[in-house]
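Board notes (copied after class):
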Amino acid sequence: MTQEIDKIAYLYLKDGQILGTRSRGKAKFYIPGGKRDADETDEETLIREVQEELTVTLIPSTIDYVGTFTAQADGKPVGVMVKMTCYRAQYEGELAASNEIEELRWLTYADLDLVSHVDKKIFAYLKERGELL
């Protein structure tokens, strides 16, 4: 049986770059977001995770589904997959690293070696669409 980690991700692109986050003690950068709590919807998870990690408040009416991507989960046994459901949205406030997030960095397709397997798929999708440098 395949085990799947269900995550919600926030794609924030600016000037051909995507916002990445690095947690304390980790080497890789990840697209902001995380796992849902109990009965949360995708939208509720996205809003909570972005508030916790980036200190900004997403504007619910601007949340827009981008796509769902699946890949082998980093640091997990073979066959443990991560499913990343991705959204865009506008926000209010100033971006800042918060909670477990140690660093924010603008990433491009050239930074593939810094990100997880599933993020590589997302980067390739955005590059193909001409959204990521």
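Comment from the instructor: Helices lie at 42-54, 117-128. The chain is about 20% helix and 35% strand.
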